[in-house]
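Box 3.1. Reading complex inputs
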Amino acid sequence: MTTTAILLALPDRRRWVGMAVPFIAVAGALAIGLVLIAASGKSVPDAIEAFLDGAFGTAFAVGASINRAVALSLVGLGFILAFRANLTNVGGEGQIAIGGIVATAIGLWPPIADLPLGLAVVLPLLGGTLGGALWGGIAGVMKVRFGTNEVISTLLLGFIALLLVYWCVQSTALLRQPQTSSATLPESLPIAESVKLPGLTGSPESPLHIGLVICLLLAVATAVVLQRSTFGLRLRAIGLNELAARRAGMPGGILLVVALALAGGFGGLAGAIMLQGEQYYLKTGFSSGYGFDGLVVGLLSRGSAVGVLAGALFFGFLRSGGISMEIMAGVPAALTLVIQGLIVIAVAGSVILVERLERGGR
Amino acid sequence: MTQSATLEPPLLALDGLGKRFGSLQALEGVSLGVRAGTVQCLLGENGAGKSTLCNLIFGVYEPSAGHMTFGGAPWAPASPAVALERGIAMVHQHFSLVPRMTVVENLMLGQVKGMLHRHEFGARIRDIAERFGFALDPDAVVGELSVGERQRAEIVKCLMRDPRLLVLDEPTAVLPPGEIGALLDICRRVADSGRAVILVTHKLAEIARVADRVAVLRGGRLVADEGMAGADMSTLVHAMVGREVKPLDVALAEPDGPAAGQPATGDAGGPRRFALVCDGLSVKDRHGAVRLDNLTLEIRPGEIVGLAGVEGNGQSELGMVLAGLLRPTEGRFYMGDVELTHAGAAAVTAAGGGIVPEDRHAVACVTAMSVAENMYLNKLGRFTRFGLLQRRALNAAAQAQMRTFDVRAASPEVAFSGLSGGNQQKAVLARELTLDPLVALVAAQPTRGLDVSAVEAVYRQIRAAARRGVGVLLISSELDELIAVADRIAVLYRGRLVGERPAEPAERAAIGALMSGQVVSGQSVSGHAA
């Protein structure tokens, strides 16, 4: 009792509360989730077991979850870069799709498989990144030239990109595999072995690939750009007061375009990594949900690269566990999404609560 | 009325009032009585605690020490809404009117529930305005009104609640000279109707004209509180700034102040003929209305040209054009020998055009960033190595510059928003005056909202720049300041240059006439024949 009182009297007790609140909130959201699972008539212990098994149960499960997290991180990192300039990129989904298309197209180009020095892996990755950057850059140019709100333009460009994937895999003139029978699926051919991302562990058991390393390097780079670089400061100035930044001689329009192109580039890279790392061939809906989950990760991170990584890991494992719950315990996928939504609300709500606590001190 | 007022207890009494924000003691031990039927002036420099005091009275903040009584009862309003309900109204410096709605619509917002009776309400607005001796068209669209008219709408909005105390927070800071008198008359009439008026200001002339009592705040403490009858102007100034200040004209006309920044070294290539040339600049707004009409002006190196005019006569547009943020519809302008008409803001900076924008918060600075970042916003490249910002070097440079330009802040790393208006302006000025090369300086309303000592500092720096060969265009609606500082004064009226006069006190009446659109005989659009 007295110990508690002393602890609470400590000057920085608010920091402890601030750190504890999000965990308590997430635990609360998970508890509600379990209640919902019970209410849907499924066995709660079965569901928990299936979740844990799917998320952490095997080396494969862990690797798959981390690969998911890599894609989410990249989209989230791009989001916080653009968000520093007060731009909200909601087009992650479409940028992933474009990245996937370009990576497939380059990966299926016959000479590519024989290129030396890992170029067979690198070129599709670069292509995907550039494709995504172009897609994000279009929204930037539209904003600067015509004043189009980037929330609208990135979202709508996203829909176009998803339909482009559809077109690419439907038309043999584009990326569809040769139609040998009426049963040929609307998918591309698989990419060559040399185009696939090298594994990290060397064990065929684990799907973990080099994308993780790329992602971590880019997270460090993003953190440096945002916190230490002049470019990051310029983005911040533009985001806070565009007129003053332009008055001070900053190239306002170019910075905005670059910010959105960077966000798009990260999305495109995520798409290329997903394709070369796990998917290996293009099909419709391969980007499903990643763009928007990445957006949520970016939003919840409050502009910190570490926050993005943490959020992405969390969502990555949650997704894997959710899929396993659906398959093994019969818990509807929709329920996983509900739980995910609850967690988002819990985290966002606790952030607001913590800010209140911090400001509440006289 | 002053005599009878001394007999009854004050309407509002403050007793030992204090307010602390974190480690900052904004207000301490303020005791003051405000009587019904009087105008109480509140004088003080920026950051002296005037606004904090008003906000305590109006229920925006809760005092951290002391207490208040209003009408004999304890006064501790939980919010401005409660204060308004119980008889205290406040006119803020920034108006809360919706520009696209009419006066009557604006005033009905929040005051009317259920059915709207425009005509009745409009009639009430007219009544109140007439009662206090001014006119206000209830059906005018707010966006088309002058600043003074908008302010009157705000005042009527307050008076409709029939308050016993009206607080006006620096109401004259936003007004052109011609409208200040009218506002002060309104204050007098409001007081004469038996209400109390608190008038916050840092312009001394206004106090002499309207105040019954004057209280002076300095550093959060009350340093003077006296009746107007016994008050002496120089004593008040002394109380306000805590040191002797010479009359403005003397201070400004002084030949040599302390060194101002590094000398501009870029202009080694012989003397330029002109520092700034505007050649037939015209600006039309979106609706096709002419805002700036064929403006031609030439400023030599070392010359300070004042551009006088009531606000809203094209000054803002000219300022934006010369800052490179607005393309003129016609005409050209040059700084040094470089044409910059369509070159944009970055090119203006590169060509040596220092700009002190009229709207400090919207154009000059990023308030959420640090003082150092703001002071070097246009020179960040200097502190960049391999793309990384050398923060330590940046902060050290800013620290040195803060000393040179007397920018007072706890450290270069504090947020710019935490600085007082005067210090913010000095920081902006420091940034623009240290351009290398510096060819021309365009300063628009550089002293707006600043107190006496900050005004002095700003003009000392501007004069020093002119002595180093910089051509200065000084856009201001403060005629006295222009006369004291400028070499010659051009007058802008409805977007046109309507005349030019020497900057002499004797020309005051002639310039004033030009500003109000009266053409002086034989002297119409004289340009720069002199």
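In summary: The interface with chain B takes residues 224, 228-234, 236-237, 240-241, 243-251, 362 of chain A (CB under 8 Å).
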